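TA notes, week 10

Several of you asked for a full example with nothing omitted. So below is the full record: structure tokens for the whole chain, then the designed sequence directly under it. When grading your own attempts, check the secondary structure regions first.
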């Protein structure tokens, strides 16, 4: 067995000899063909489902989400009080340079919103 590494931009591909592989077939017991047709009706199956999981009240879920997010809110409030948020300057480059960053932050925000919606529902 040889491992070959190559690419369109590579001038010369690299080939490593890895091992000798020997595959043999086992002819000891040939398989018997199943000629019996299995199209008869089967026994009826009865399923029992467990009780649905109990979930807390929506108001309790919302309060829990707010308690979990409170440290982040305190962090942002502390940054605002120290003036750290006021030192953020608007970008001077064209907006096309920031599209990927904005989309990344939007995806994080969408994930966060989805988690909150899951907690509330």
């Amino acid at each position: 067995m040889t491992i070959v590494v190559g690419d369109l931009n590579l001038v010369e591909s690299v080939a490593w000899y890895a091992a000798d592989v020997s595959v043999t077939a086992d002819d000891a017991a040939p398989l018997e063909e199943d000629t019996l047709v299995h199209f008869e009706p089967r026994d009826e199956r009865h399923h029992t489902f467990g009780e649905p999981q109990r979930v807390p009240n929506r108001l309790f879920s919302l309060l829990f989400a707010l308690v979990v997010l409170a440290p982040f809110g305190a962090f942002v409030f502390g940054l605002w009080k120290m003036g750290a948020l006021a030192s953020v300057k608007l970008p001077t480059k064209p907006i096309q340079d920031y599209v990927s960053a904005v989309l990344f932050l939007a995806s994080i925000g969408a994930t966060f919103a989805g988690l909150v919606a899951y907690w509330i529902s």
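Residues 62 and 68 are 10 Å apart (CA to CA). Use that as a sanity check on your answer.
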